[in-house]
Design brief:
242 residues, five-stranded parallel β-sheet, 37% helix, alpha/beta, globular
């Protein structure tokens, strides 16, 4: 569909080599990527044969850095012989595969010698907890750090707004939360807004200017959610939730 699949066999070696030769002297490069969310890695049983020569070329041109893929369905990719070859495992949104409690643990237990990281994660706190509590998880890249124009997903939105910083670079609620996670000093963040009902992974978060409460979703009944919020936060929600 994207066109490169028609050119891959002829050009992959040239393109990959050019990228590595161009950037291998930059100290900011720590890992080489040989594909992000590639459907072939998930759906073709010979995917392991596809990445093998790519890993060899990476090692030949730069023996100092590992190579990885951005894997957004590790259960399928692993079955197709990809994961077992990777010197470091990159996972995109791995809580979708194993849940927010297990996260990276199942893949670490299968490949205990390999480090892993979140090659793409969201702002959910479970990713920071997985990083904090497991020494084999070396980091993660949040999609995204800053809001941007594009990927509006619904009418009325200016762009992507699930980030740590707003378009103005002002710190958002989630940004303050992550800041608190990375320091031992106490943090207070005053966050004023009208009360919102936000559905995330089947749970409604009722946010006010002072606190956030988590309420289990009632099927198609926002009125029930609001009523429960009024009982939990009477002095803050009664006047703003209409």
């Amino acid at each position: 569909m994207n066109g490169y699949n028609h050119l891959y066999n002829e050009w992959w070696r040239t393109d990959l080599a050019d990228m590595i030769k161009r950037d291998r002297n930059h100290p900011s490069v720590i890992i080489w990527g040989i594909g992000n969310e590639i459907p072939n890695y998930r759906h073709y049983k010979n995917a392991g044969e596809t990445i093998a020569p790519m890993l060899v070329l990476c090692k030949e041109l730069d023996p100092t850095r590992p190579a990885c893929v951005g894997d957004n369905n590790c259960k399928l990719t692993d079955k197709n012989g990809v994961t077992e070859q990777l010197p470091i495992m990159g996972f995109n949104y791995i809580e979708r595969d194993f849940g927010s409690k297990d996260m990276y643990r199942p893949m670490h237990e299968k490949y205990p010698e390999n480090l892993c990281f979140g090659s793409e994660v969201n702002k959910e706190l479970c990713y920071h907890i997985a990083l904090r509590d497991n020494p084999y998880v070396i980091g993660g890249f949040i999609w995204t750090g800053i809001d941007y124009l594009g990927e509006t997903k619904e009418l009325g939105r200016r762009g992507w707004n699930s980030s740590l910083l707003a378009l103005t670079l002002n710190k958002k609620y989630e940004g303050a939360l992550y800041e608190a996670c990375w320091t031992e000093e106490p943090r207070i963040f005053h966050h004023f807004l009208r009360c919102l009902s936000i559905r995330t992974y089947g749970i409604h978060y009722i946010r006010t200017g002072w606190r956030t409460c988590r309420i289990k979703q009632k099927k198609g009944c926002l009125a029930g959610i609001k009523e429960k919020a009024r009982k939990l936060l009477p002095q803050y929600t009664t006047t703003v939730m209409k």
